[in-house]
Specification:
By secondary structure, the chain is mainly alpha-helical. The chain has one domain. Helices cover 54% and strands 0% of the residues. It contains three helices and no strands. The chain is elongated and about 65 Å long.
């Protein structure tokens, strides 16, 4: 699949983003963070997306680490057979 814009070949989907009030505000904040790209709104948008993605990847990794760190640290909190009893309440 080729882009519909002549002279700009790409196999990647293209997206149009309308600069709503929320998008404008996000780009204005991004311009303060990356002032050298202040006049390049599309570049700021990509920076915001990449920054969000890195944050989400880090959040997911911290979540997994927390689960592994605390796994098995509370033996005896639930009585024996509790999980089977709970599963018995679930519809088939």
């Amino acid at each position: 699949m080729w882009c519909y814009t002549p002279g700009v070949p790409t196999h990647h989907p293209r997206h149009t983003v309308t600069e709503t009030d929320e998008v404008r505000q996000a780009l204005d904040i991004a311009a303060r963070r990356w002032p050298h790209d202040r006049g390049r709104r599309s570049r700021l948008l990509m920076r915001v997306v990449r920054d969000w993605m890195r944050g989400e990847e880090g959040r997911a990794e911290r979540h997994r680490t927390g689960i592994l760190r605390t796994s098995g640290t509370m033996p005896g909190v639930f009585p024996a057979g509790h999980l089977d009893e709970l599963r018995g309440e679930w519809p088939e």
